[in-house]
Fold:
Amino acid sequence: MSPAPASSAPAPAAIEVTGLCCGYEGRTVLKDVSFTVQRGEVLFVIGGSGCGKSTLLRHLVGLNAPMAGEVKFFGQSFTAADLATRRGLLKTFGVLYQGGALWSSLTLRQNVALPLEEHTALSGREIAELTSLKLAQVGLTGFEDYYPSEISGGMKKRAGLARALALDPAIVFLDEPSAGLDPITSRKLDDLVLQLRDTFGTTLVVVSHELASIFGIADRVIMLDRDAQGLIAEGPPAHLAAHSRDPRVTEFLLRRDRPPSPAAR
Amino acid sequence: MPSTAPTAARADTEMEGTVLRVRIAGDWSISGARPNWTGVLAGRAPQRVVLAADALGDWDSSLLLFLFEVQLWCRLAGAYCDAKALPEKILTLLKQMSVSHETSVPFDRSENFFTGVGEATLDAVQKARAFSHFIGECVLGVNRMWKRPQKFRWADAIEEMQNCGAMALPIVSLISFLVGVTLAYIGAIVLRQYGGDIYVADLVGLSMVREMGALMTGVVLAGRTGAAYAATLGNMKANEEIDALETLGIPAIDFLVLPRLLALFVMMPLLTLYANALGIVGGMTVASGVLSIPPAAYWVELLTIVDLSDLFVGVTKGATFGLIIGLSGCLRGMEAERSAGGVGRAATSAVVTAILLIIVSNALYAVIFDILGL
Structure:
């Protein structure tokens, strides 16, 4: 799981983001984003469509190089890391993509087994045991030898989560895990997230719109805004909903209309 | 839905001094005709425009467009637009329209000639850099494969070999046979005039073994396999499958590209040899059927001109073309845009790049083999 602290100094935060500027082809989407995620915390990244939640996630996991700023995992810089360090850090986190992103030419078992085959020296039998366990944890027992095209969208997501958990990562990023899922499956996924946190102390960063999940399992949320091009609120969701004076925050969390502007009738 | 037949949209006007009273009436439909403000104004220049809609029937966005035109005119002409008598719903929508008009700044995608040339140049440089980078990555991937062969995805490579090799046999057979037939006919037209019919065997043999076998197989596989690679990888990119590999620390080059490159590198020379044989058989068929040259004589004549060095030339070209097709297909797939259109463009681009590079490398080989005396 998470790398052991090197000395008796307080353990560094799981994720430390400083002055991150994200964008594509010179177009800035987010400016000067800074936040910290403590070990074992469930952090939700929330905000309206197009505010840059998925962009932030892509920059956090290294799929896009930031325009400025730094991302640290357990005190080690990810953005400035050399190739070997980067490969090492990649093993500390797993990512669940919006559509599951399962490799279509492989069965679910092979999808989950691949990271284990690549990064561990486990025997084929041990890998088979682990893949069965991971798939069982997400409720996919009996579907091990199905191809992604043969299962439903929700099952793909759960299989994607099983793959993200294959290497027992210390941090798991989930991009819109509840999108397109029925409320029961969505709640089961939330339970799984909590179980992960409680059992392994996993740190979870979840990009989501789902208010039930936000209020149900988030320890803290950070809210992004498209016009502000950055972070506009940070804190426990219930606290923000009750005490925030920012209409953009209350509008989102309480589904409340913004007060009408003087020009509106 | 209105129960009665719709009446025409109207804007009746009445001028009182400097005040123009506009009475909007009838049913306003976006698909029907509506009054034009310039026509309604009829050259008058009021200081104040008073709008009323007490006889208005059904209405939709067409009325908004008309009222917005009135507002804009009033603003430009310095007249006062009195819309207080209009229904609340219309005023709300009109206000939203004014706000969207003010705030929506069109994204200017137009560019002048010099910008276009500059961007195309930068794009070409960037593409050349991406291609070099990709080749470098593949070389590093081969190095990793060499060091840890047990991690290489041999099963994928073998499956790809079947797809790009065995499955391509029917189309390669047909094309090569017909190329052999065509070469023999063309040769016969000239050679028959000098009584040298038998030299058709030399012409077909040398052309197929040194040039056409590899070239035609390369073109067929560029269209068949190169496009398929680009589409598969482009689709995987759109589905975030390649991102998933990257974040799991598995190089996409090792997992997706090298098995395909190896498959083409192995199968292209074999397919080239097969194409050579089929082309020669095509020539032999014409020779025996049209020129009355017995197959045995054809074969003996062929052996006098075609030797192992010619086969080596063809096979070397075949292997090179295989790498070119694999690299083009995989590169274009990996850099495809994340959309259905992007995948289509990647497939097209892969075929064009592969054929272009095949022709260029074929010309280079002509020079190199000439220097080497092969």
